[in-house]
Amino acid sequence: MRIDVVTIFPGYLDALDLSLVGKARRDGLLDLRVHDLRDWTTDRHRTVDDTPFGGGAGMVMRPDVWGRALDDVLGRTGGGDPAGRQVLLVPTPSGERLTQRTVEDLATVDQLVLACGRYEGIDARVAEHYADAGVEVREFSLGDYVLNGGEVAALVVVEAVARLLPGVVGNPQSLVEESHGAAGLLEYPVYTKPPAWAGREVPEILLSGHHGNIARWRRDLALERTAERRPDMVGTLDPADLDRRDRAVLARHGWFVPAGGAAPVRVVVRPGRPEDAAGLADLAAATFPLACPPHMAEEDVAAFVAAHLGPEHFAAYLAEEERYRVLVAEGPAGPVGYTLLVLPLTAQESPYAEDVAALVVARPAAELSKCYVLPEFQGSGVAGALLDATTTQAAAHLVEDEPVATVWLGTNRANRRAQRRYARHGFVTLGTRRFRVGESLEEDVVMAVTLADVPQTTPPPAPAG
Ligand code: JD8
């Protein structure tokens, strides 16, 4: 590959004589040429800039000087049409953000030409002229901060591209696992001797010699770091690359992978707000029928929804905070799940149904009346996050100075999936109850969790107001 850098400060690129890039140049793996723009000036002061048309501070670099320089370097002087793919790169704070994807593409090019501006920048006609002349022109930025010129950006591009060229990096395998690499994750932390330093030990697992566990630990740390430090990267991960464990790690950081091949999305569990009533009623109408066994008549399901899950009902659940607590799992496009917790108003209040009161003996007892997520989020971990937040909220609730001791629920005997989910969150089956849905008298499994046994997650923030 050939890389040409044109600048008024050629010495700025001397660092590229060092290290891997320097060796790659000496080994003939990279043909890097640095040019002084002033070599294409025509006046005895070797002028490269002039005052800006339209006024304003500073100076602008002249197009005619740049034109002569770039024609030469691109081999277009005398109208030549050089072979191979050429890219003219113009560093500028107003350019597209440089990424590893861009660098990987640039590493396949035959000739890169970097035009390093100074002062207020290069006359805008230069980039337009070469683009119109059929040259691939890319104006790029390193990031949202202002430098004094393009030389630093040229150093970055040359190093980032050169290390991807065959033979430059000793062990190509190391290119695979790094940040922003194919996995699209940040790197896991690395350690070396001494095993103890400044009172800090190397993570035990790295000394275990168990390569499988070490690989899994490193993947977990890479996922966690990416979710914590670069949430913008999580939404671009390919779900096909995310196994069950990956998804569990991301779920712990609020990222969930919907069914159907979509990328991970941020879902936040928060207290319901009065303005959620209509959206929650729509969500409830869409999800309650899915938990009903096929034998249940549609009209019975509809009757139940109309009687308990209308916007007016949710308005009440959201307003009566002493009795009800609503948690909402909010995705990018609105609620994707919710729970409805019914709190006891007195410490010894019994569940309203006798057959349940006979099974659920611990007090104070709260009822997890509703726990639903949209189908595309079933199995994604959203329901689990809602459940953890709900039991944490219940455990933090005092009734006559007594913390709620247990949360019970009823779920249709046929809904095995729900029963498995509740069991994974500490709920045990106590028995059954009769439950009316419209005209249909159903049999529910009654399950309950003893809150003292459940590790409490970070409680969701207290209800607004
Ligand atoms: C090229 C001239 C200086 C910029 C007036 C300060 C890239 N991420 C980045 N930040 N800054 C640059 C950059 C700055 C440059 C030039 C790149 C040429 N300047 C100018 C406009 C405001 N001075 C950059 N890549």
Plain-language structure description:
The protein is of the alpha/beta class. It has three domains: 2-170, SPOUT methyltransferase, trefoil knot domain (Alpha/beta knot); 196-256, Trp Operon Repressor, Chain A (Orthogonal Bundle); 268-453, Aminopeptidase (3-Layer(aba) Sandwich), CATH 3.40.630. Helices cover 30% and strands 23% of the residues. It contains 15 helices and 20 strands. The strands form six sheets. Strands 12-13-14-15-18-20-19 form a seven-stranded mixed beta sheet, with helices on both faces. A hairpin with a 2-residue loop joins β19 and β20 (440-450). α10 (277-287) packs across α12 (311-319). 32% of the residues are buried. The model has no long low-confidence stretch (mean pLDDT 93). The structure holds ligand JD8.
What are the main properties of this structure?
binds ligand JD8; 5-stranded parallel β-sheet; alpha/beta; 15 helices; Alpha/beta knot
SSE order and pairing:
Layout lengths: L1 E6 L11 H8 L4 E6 L12 E2 L9 E2 L1 H11 L12 E12 L2 H7 L4 E5 L9 H8 L3 E6 L9 H12 L10 H5 L18 E2 L2 E2 L9 H19 L1 H4 L9 H9 L2 E2 L8 E2 L1 E4 L5 H11 L10 H11 L2 H9 L4 E8 L2 E9 L11 H4 L7 E9 L8 H14 L2 E2 L2 E2 L2 E7 L3 H9 L3 E10 L2 E11 L15
Parallel strand pairs: 1-2, 1-6, 5-6, 5-7, 15-18
Antiparallel strand pairs: 3-4, 8-9, 10-11, 12-13, 13-14, 14-15, 16-17, 18-20, 19-20
CA-based gyration radius: 32 Å
Q: Report the portion of residues in β strands.
A: 15-25%
CATH class of the largest domain: Alpha Beta
The profile of the biggest β sheet is: 7 strands, mixed
